[in-house]
Amino acid sequence: MITRFVLFCGLFCFISLSSAVGQATSAMVGFLKLHLQTGPNFIGFALLPIMEVQSTFTISPSDRKQVLLQGAGLTLTEGQFSTGSLPTHAIEISSSGTGQGFTSVVVTTQAASNRLTLAQEIPVGVVDGATLRVWKLWRLADVFGSTNSAGLTAGETSAEADLILLPDQAGVVKKYFYSSGGAQGIGWRLAGGDATSQANVPVLLTSGMAILAKSAKTILLVGQVKQGNTQVTLQTGHNYVANLCPVNSAGTGASTQGRTLANSGLSAGLTGGTASELADLVLIWNGRGYDQYFYSTGGLANTGWRKIGAGTQSQDTVALPDGAFVILRRGSPITLTINQGNF
Fold it and tell me: Residue ranges per domain, the chain?
């Protein structure tokens, strides 16, 4: 379970480090308490570490992976948002219209022309003058502490420790743990790997994770709210998806602004079907297993959100979990837009 509390500007106000559009940008800041239970936990972060730049941009006419940030007084330094082999920052298109919510990690930062090279092309239809934000990404060391200050169960082998299951950029789920010594040394390590530190492994903006915990514990995170819709790329198969909405739709502090199956926008992007085996599935962990939902396009189940095994009963009001959920994508990879409300 995740406890969310958002401190609105006025209680705790942050001014962005660089305001390339010439306006001060105030961010909503708050904290998350991650209450891990023994066994599987599905975690997503509705808060991000820090927004470092907000800027209008132009797109390179020869390469839509390259954008040039605009704005008086904005000066990037070489490698500012792209140090080392692992991603450290990502952009999000924040202006309304085509492409809103598109995200991509930053591959290179060039001081000349304030140029960013992205891992993905800017979507067709996005034109010069649109606005983006540059976000720092969470790293394992940020979330759980460089020396495991979060208190996850450590061990000399992954079998003895809490396991973090985290997708990489290709959607491949990898397993990490905090090694207390032995052959892999001390620190964050890849299960079955060597003694190479994994402290800087990033958590992508839209990514959820699973934590297989040996015992119950609580982790505290402080960060900023990402406003606006979010585009998520789904690979064929199982995908961990974070619920980025900063308020709950059920449980403690429930809000009508929280996300449910009906108001999430998922039905517009996922493949529906007249039977569950023909449709993409939304899998929500219930503490013992998965409740499985699909969007019925007709047939015996009629039209609307349905739960496998619950007949024609509407599932519109089912709350998306506070942390993360799993989407089983049956077809080829797609990009869909998740509506996370306005805050």
Answer: 51-136, 145-203, 229-338
> Under 8 Å CB-to-CB from 12, ≥6 apart: which residues?
29
- Exposure string of 207-233, with b = 16+ CB inside 10 Å and e = fewer, is bbbbbbbbeebebebebbbbbbbbbbb
Whole-number Å distance between alpha carbons of 7 and 205: 21
Burial of 196 (0-12, 13-18, 19+ CB in 10 A): exposed
Q: What is the pLDDT of residues 251-290, one digit of tens each?
A: 877 888 899 999 999 999 999 999 999 999 999 999 889 9
**In the block, residue with structure tokens 């808060």:** 47
Q: What is the pTM of this model?
A: 0.87
- CATH level 2 (architecture), domain 51-136: Beta Barrel (2.40)
Sheet holding 39-43, edge to edge: 39-43, 209-213, 163-167, 173-180, 186-190
